[in-house]
Amino acid sequence: MKRAIFPGSFDPITLGHVDIIERGVTLFDELIIAIGVNSGKKYMFSLAERKQFIENCFKGNPKIKVVTYRGLTVDFCMKNNFDFILRGLRNPADFEFEKAIAHTNRDLAPVETVFLLTAASTSYISSSIVRDVIRNDGDYTKLVPKMVRI
Ligand code: ADP
User: Fold this and answer.
1) Domains of the chain listed by start with CATH number
2) Which of 43, 85, 90, 98 to mutate to test ligand 1, by most ligand atoms within 8 A of the CB atom?
3) Which residues contact 128 (CB under 8 A, 6 or more apart)?
4) C-alpha span between 22 and 13 (Å, rounded)
5) pLDDT tens string 13-46
6) What is the distance in A from the centroid of ligand 1 to the CA of 126?
7) Which residues approach ligand 1 with their CB closer than 6 A?
8) Which of 5, 25, 63, 135 has the least CB density, counted as fewest CB within 10 Å?
């Protein structure tokens, strides 16, 4: 059984993430959306809110699960027998960043990283821009799935 995790902060989940998840799930038997908990990071949405938003988006799909984890992504993969890490690439900056992480992960554990190019229509979206729009009372609804409402 091919199982992959899609790790991230999802603060909050955006239409860009949804695109990667919907396309990624066709490649694997199971896709686990894994919200990484980093105690040094400040989030706009609580862990419970971020998890709830994602669960509401995909509750009809038995191939998609949502979990939270602490520590290294590869350690989490090894403990749970996940063979693949799914990541999205928006632009050259993402590529350089992701390349270093993927090489490091391969040094640490036999887990393959699979990249999907983002859809052109959502490649400009990032959670940090969404948070900025929200903080400044802008219309964030075009950038996130319907389940994300404040
Ligand atoms: P992280 O804190 O690990 O960067 P994010 O939640 O920002 O977590 O992103 C998780 C994954 O989603 C990453 O692989 C990232 O490249 C991808 N991603 C983020 N925004 C988009 C987008 N607009 N389109 C497609 N993939 C995206």
Assistant:
1) 3-148 (3.40.50.620)
2) 90
3) none
4) 13
5) 999 999 999 999 999 999 999 999 988 899 999 9
6) 7
7) 8-10, 14, 16-17, 19-20, 87-88, 90, 94, 118, 122-123, 125-127
8) 135
The mean pLDDT values, 10 residues at a time, for the chain of 150 residues are: 97 98 97 94 96 96 97 97 97 96 97 96 97 97 93
Burial class of residue 93 in the structure, from the number of CB atoms within 10 Å of its CB (0-12 exposed, 13-18 middle, 19+ buried): exposed
* Closest protein CA for atom 5 of ligand 1: 8
pLDDT at 149: 86
Residue to mutate (ligand 1; options 17, 90, 129; most atoms within 8 A of CB): 17
pTM summary value = 0.93
Torsion of CA 14, 15, 19, 24, to 10 degrees: 20
